[in-house]
Amino acid sequence: MSDTGAAKRPPTIDDVLRLRAAEPLPSSDGRTEDGAARDGAAPPRIVEIARLAGVSPITVSRALRQPEKVAEAKRRKILEIVERTGYATNPHARALRSGHSNIVAAFVSNLQSQQFCLAVQGCGEVLEPQGYQLMIGQTSYSYAKETTMIQSLREMRPAAVMFTGVIEIEENRRALRALGIPIMETWAYPRDPIDMLVGFSNIDSGRFAAEHFAGRGYRRVAFIGRRSGRGALRLNGFREGARAAGLDIVAELSVDRVTSMVDGRRALAELLSGNAAIEAVFCANDLLATGALLEARRLGLRLPEDIAILGFGHSDVAEELPPGLTTIGIDSRDLGRQAGSMILQRMRGDMPAEPIRAIDLTLTHRGSS
Amino acid sequence: MSDTGAAKRPPTIDDVLRLRAAEPLPSSDGRTEDGAARDGAAPPRIVEIARLAGVSPITVSRALRQPEKVAEAKRRKILEIVERTGYATNPHARALRSGHSNIVAAFVSNLQSQQFCLAVQGCGEVLEPQGYQLMIGQTSYSYAKETTMIQSLREMRPAAVMFTGVIEIEENRRALRALGIPIMETWAYPRDPIDMLVGFSNIDSGRFAAEHFAGRGYRRVAFIGRRSGRGALRLNGFREGARAAGLDIVAELSVDRVTSMVDGRRALAELLSGNAAIEAVFCANDLLATGALLEARRLGLRLPEDIAILGFGHSDVAEELPPGLTTIGIDSRDLGRQAGSMILQRMRGDMPAEPIRAIDLTLTHRGSS
DNA sequence: TTGTAGGCGTTATCAA
DNA sequence: TTGATAACGCCTACAA
């Protein structure tokens, strides 16, 4: 049925042919007298701008790329014509000749993660006004896919690459380095990033969690999370912090899947079915923590009196679920913005004074702990 | 602090210079004897493949693009060499010469929407294995941004464009049509899509909601949602359905912002503070519905006895929040996949028999209604 | 400060 | 079925 309220309309042959009819070229060069292109006409080329300005094409190119090298009056005239005609450089011709495009490749581990998307958005906010286009790809946490995508970069010739994560495979690290362009890694704090980094220590976040529990007077604590990747780092930090603060980690529950809250529900149920009396649980991410929180409420437990729950990720649902989830995390959009501006600086040829930046971890305290 | 546990390390000059050292070219043409490129070497070109195969470049090009036009033996040899050397066509040279790239532009209204991201993912799943790259942009529900991005397409020369929405501005519709490439609109069911459509009727979803309420025996119903865009369509359908089923719409609450659950909380609170006794509320999206559900529980209301709540969007949180949110929606990933395969068909030059496809709306019944 | 010459890597066109 | 030729639009290198 149609949104206009009419009965469902079978597509007519007109629908099918409409596109074919779209491109009549009324005048010889498809352009009005002032050089502005009309719909359906080929966009203006640099030679056209040059002709209108009475200069050579290379001068137009310079007026756009290195304005300081073109005489004031000419530059103004050229830019005015560019504006009027809506001229835009053909990015493919530029990439072909100059060897690099205006595309910045951004790889997220998972498009479903609000935090990763926020980081990419932040990065785009900085880069897009400068004429760069973000090309977003999803690695799906798969090394194979990561490798394929990194290989495809050789031909794409992006101006820079950014990841919501760090690259661990040495071969991929080498391939990226060999591109000779700015590479940004994020979301961790490795000893030796490929090129640039805006990250935070996952180990610290575990320590932070332990310290928080200690400060609130909990002694018998537990961990839920993955035993690989970032989860493992958070666990290591949690252990360290617990030892330092004299806490007992009475249980560590490893989950393989972290795809929905159900995984967190199950994990908490399993944890509670053990013998150890648990006062507080640190969940390595908010999806697990949210599931755990819901399960605790379903079981009629009071939070935080019967059990305290702490998550990681600053997810927005966390705020709304009574009694509110306490969560450790970063400002992902800010991470993206910082990454974007460092990338920008590098693309302009400057080396940032600090190619490695740390983002602050913060704890948002709510009712669950 | 570092994830390796070491103390925070100030970046050394090595960090800064590492990238500079990345590209030594040990042999004259930076390539091993079998033609395979090494890290840091320029990737092989089509002439190199042609030389190795003892044919002309154009034959290599044909072997890749129109294999049926190349003799069996030659084709096999060429493809074997392509495989061995890791040759990949330079996309910029191809785009420059042929006039179209392998990029498919995908515009989402909002990257934070899981449903939109799912649709884009589904589309990518179909297109990427065929060698197309998805370039994702965010319009932020802004006409200005939409217009800018559409203009930039003229130069990007994508192979196709997809939107999680429909284009309303006539100028943008014309600009898109003038690109002469497949255009895919989604998420609604307008009378006259630009080119292709995989959509569903937002009006129908409102009718569906009213019918559901009628079937469950609710009489006094209400609506929460935006008065513009899709929200307005859902309201129209809800009104129609209510009239047909003999329901009383005792309140229609318009919200301007739908950015967090808080908006839904507030809306329900406001609704309940009115005089009308309300039995059931249809919320135009799940974010609002989730907020409303939480608010109802906070107020100690029983769902669905004291108040029934119905959402739209099949969001995943909806499942987990007790007593479970009843929600109308579509399979977004499937929408994306269908869109992708129609786009693919068009890019290959075939016209799909049905350029307009309807996606089924389904209702997932849970405890809230 | 401006311009000339030429080529980036591929594919359209036409000829054989 | 294959190849020669030229051109896509721009920018690097060099010259004036």
Protein described:
Two copies of one chain form a homodimer. By secondary structure, chain A is of the alpha/beta class. Chain A has three domains: 77 residues, Orthogonal Bundle (434 Repressor (Amino-terminal Domain)); 132 residues, Rossmann fold (3-Layer(aba) Sandwich); 128 residues, Response regulator (Rossmann fold). Helices cover 43% and strands 15% of the residues of chain A. In chain A, the strands form two sheets. In chain A, strands 2-1-3-4-5-11 form a six-stranded parallel beta sheet, sandwiched between helices. A six-stranded mixed beta sheet of chain A has the order 7-6-8-9-10-12, sandwiched between helices. Chain A is elongated, with a radius of gyration of 27 Å. The two termini of chain A are 50 Å apart. In chain A, 48% of the residues are buried. Chains A and B meet through helix 1, helix 5, helix 6, strand 2 and helix 7 of A and helix 1, helix 5, helix 6, strand 2 and helix 7 of B. Chain A binds a DNA duplex (16 and 16 nucleotides) through helix 3 and helix 5.
In the CATH hierarchy, the third-tier topology of the largest domain in chain A is known as Rossmann fold
The level 1 CATH classification of the largest domain in chain A is: Alpha Beta
Strand order of the largest sheet of chain A: 2-1-3-4-5-11
Report the mean per-residue pLDDT of chain A as an integer.
86
Helical stretch tally of chain A: 14
What general outline of chain A do the C-alpha atoms trace? elongated
**Tally of strands of chain A:** 12
Instruction: Kindly name the structural category of chain A.
Output: alpha/beta
CATH superfamily of the largest domain in chain A: Response regulator
Percent of residues in helices of chain A comes to: 40-55%
Total domain modules of chain A: 3
* Helix and strand element order of chain A: HHHHHEHEHEHEEHEHEHEHEHEHEE
pLDDT < 50 stretches of chain A = 1-38
Tell me the quaternary state: homodimer
Second rung of CATH, namely the architecture of the largest domain in chain A: 3-Layer(aba) Sandwich
Largest sheet of chain A: 6 strands, parallel
Q: Work out the largest interface and the residue count of each chain.
A: A-B, 88 and 87 residues
Rg of chain A (C-alpha, Å): 27 Å
InterPro entries (chains A, B): HTH_LacI (IPR000843), LacI/GalR-like_sensor (IPR046335), Lambda_DNA-bd_dom_sf (IPR010982), Peripla_BP_I (IPR028082)
Domain HTH lacI-type (chains A, B): 44-98
Region (Disordered) (chains A, B): 1-41
Keywords (chains A, B): DNA-binding, Transcription, Transcription regulation
